Amino acid sequence: MAENILRKLVNNSQMAIDDGTYDVDCNLEKSSKDFKQIIKTNPHATLLTEVKFSSPSLGKIRTQSDPANIAKQMIRGGSKALSVLTQPHLFHGSPEYFMKVRNAVDVPLLMKDIMIDKIQIDTAKKIGADYMLVIQSLFDQKFLSDIDEFISYGHKQGLEILLEVHTKDEFTNALKTEADIIGINNRNLDTLDIDLKTTETVLQGYDESRIILSESGIQTPEDIQYLKKCGADAFLIGSSIMKSDNIEEQVKKLVNAY
Fold first, then answer.
1. How far is CA 139 from CA 6, 83, 178, in A?
2. In the CATH scheme, what is the homologous superfamily, with its name and number, of domain 2-255?
3. SS3 of 25, please?
4. Which residues contact 144 (CB under 8 A, 6 or more apart)?
5. Spatial separation of the C-alpha atoms in residues 192 and 98, rounded to whole Å
6. Distances, alpha carbon 164 to alpha carbons 86, 181, 253, 257, in Å
7. What is the pLDDT of residues 22-53, one digit of tens each?
8. Cβ(112)–Cβ(67) under 8 Å?
9. With 110 labelled, which of 98, 130, 184, 202 sits at a CA distance of 20 to 30 A?
10. Burial of 59 (0-12, 13-18, 19+ CB in 10 A)
11. Residue 112's closest CA among 87, 148, 140?
């Protein structure tokens, strides 16, 4: 099953590359703010909130509307960085959405996509991304080769790397890389099931100084308090905010979890 979903995601990215999705002609500036520094100094919960209208697990999350407006509501609520989907298939994202958000706000932005090719990394740089997503399992399961070279290419383009893992083994492998932040996805990509205990399991016995981001399934201030106890430094939250009737208030509530 795992292979099927991962293979589908990889194929979607290849399709988007072939369709010219990433052929953008621009040179936007990235943020003036340092996300890692923000995480280290923020007295409240540091949120990386996600602008996404659809996902493979939930289908349509919110009626498509102006992403820049949603981004501003998130920031007014206290979000310190944003993740913006650029993957058109299953997520209804696009580099154009990303550019709209980039032009509207000056916070660190993550280009959220299934990154399989340097073409996408070049695009991330052009559209003003601060971070790009790299998924450890794509390398561990041999969909892609040489994670170090992939990360190094991102760094050469001035991007920082959020490296996503789901298991203890992937985490161990991720720690050997030069990734800037390690994200623990509480969602199992084999089944799309979510279990917040994933963060706890993966971090057991870990006491190094990498910045850890917990991702997926976070809905309440209590979830954030629990994940912080497990060792997470920041939190990626998408669906529960995008589904909310009042995005600004929902973000505020989560930011004030501590």
1. 11, 22, 15
2. Aldolase class I (3.20.20.70)
3. coil
4. 116, 138, 150
5. 25
6. 17, 9, 26, 24
7. 999 999 999 999 999 999 999 999 999 999 77
8. no
9. 202
10. exposed
11. 87
